[in-house]
Structures are given as C-alpha cells and as structure tokens.
Write a structure and sequence with these properties.
Its EC number is 3.1.1.29. It catalyses: an N-acyl-L-alpha-aminoacyl-tRNA + H2O = an N-acyl-L-amino acid + a tRNA + H(+). Belongs to the PTH family. Keywords: Cytoplasm, Hydrolase, RNA-binding, tRNA-binding. The chain has about 190 residues and is α/β, with parallel strands linked by helices. It has a single domain, classed as Rossmann fold (3-Layer(aba) Sandwich). The protein has six helices and seven strands, in the order E-H-E-E-E-H-E-E-H-E-H-H-H. Strands 2-3-4-1-5-7-6 form a seven-stranded mixed beta sheet, sandwiched between helices. A hairpin with a 3-residue loop joins strand 2 and strand 3. Helix 2 packs across helix 3 and helix 5 runs antiparallel to helix 6. The radius of gyration is 15 Å and the shape is globular. The termini are far apart. The mean pLDDT is about 95.
Length: about 190
Amino acid sequence: MAQTWLVVGLGNPGPRYEATRHNVGQMVLDELASRRGESFRAHKANARVAETWLRPGAAKMILAKPNSFMNVSGGPVANLARFYGVEPEQVVIVHDELDIPFDTIKLKTGGGHGGHNGVRDVAKALGTPEFPRVRVGIGRPPGRQDAADWVLDPFAGAERQNLPILLSDAADAVEKLIDEGLLAAQQKHHAPRA
C-alpha cells in the first residue's frame, strides 16, 4: 500500500495575507494542487485540504492549509496527522525562512525552529521537532525594517517576477523529498543553480 504524506503550507488566513511573504508555504501548496488539477475544500480539522497522489501508483499526498493564524498552526496540523494516521516523519511543513536568501530553498528534518513561531507550534503540537521541512527563502528585510513587518508585506516587484519559479522549485522539492528522500532532495535543491 502506498505511503501517505501530509504536506502542510504554513501561512495566515484571509485575503489580507494571501500575497505576503509569510504565506509562501501556502502558495507552494497551491502550486502542488494546481499541477494535479485539485482544489482545496474545508476539513473539520480547521484546515483546507486536497487529497491527491504524487503520481498514479505512488505516495498519497494530503495537501493542507491551516485556517488558523501562523503562530497557532500546530493544532490543525496535529489533528490532520491523527485523522489521516500520518506519523511526524511523514508530515512535511513548507514555510517561509528569513535566514535564507530569497529565491533559495533548503530542506531539513528536525532541529530548532529558528525563531519561526509556526514551526515552533507545530513541533509542540506533534510532540517532536523531527518532521521534514521545506524552507522557502524570503531573505531578511533591508535597512532597519522590522522582521515582523517584513514577513507580512507582499513580495516586492523584482521578487514578484521570480516568485513563480521559486514556487515551482519548492513544489519540485516537496515531490523529490516524498519520492526519493531527504538526501536526494537536498542534493538537487541545495546545489547552486546553473
């Protein structure tokens, strides 16, 4: 029987936040759903989900976007993991990362939360930090702009032009992680772009 993976895009709910840097995880989930012609629907775990497959005969993927705010993402993630019978090592969290330059993707399993309150809350709710993460670089704010304001701003003009490529690359990273494992995904996506 094919393995089931829960892939969660972190972000904030509502139109005010849709295009912000903090919601890049949910944008990646939209890309994954769009590739498969799927749409999200309400789930009782306070999330929107799309049930699909990596490809026919391969792993099942539950794509999920919590309806909660970023800092309290853990509840919906833990409830979905329980509902679908998915262990933490099969819960992929896709999120924005200040400490990685824009247009860069890094993958890891476990470790600290790096000050990311959404990741912190998921680790607390799952009872472990040992889950895979696809970290989508948004870079640090220029000058003295506060990081909290920066993540809640929309992507700037030049970033917006490159955003579709970044979202596609991050979606590729999720698929590679599920299909071939963390190391293969790291080897492909951590290498400098040609």
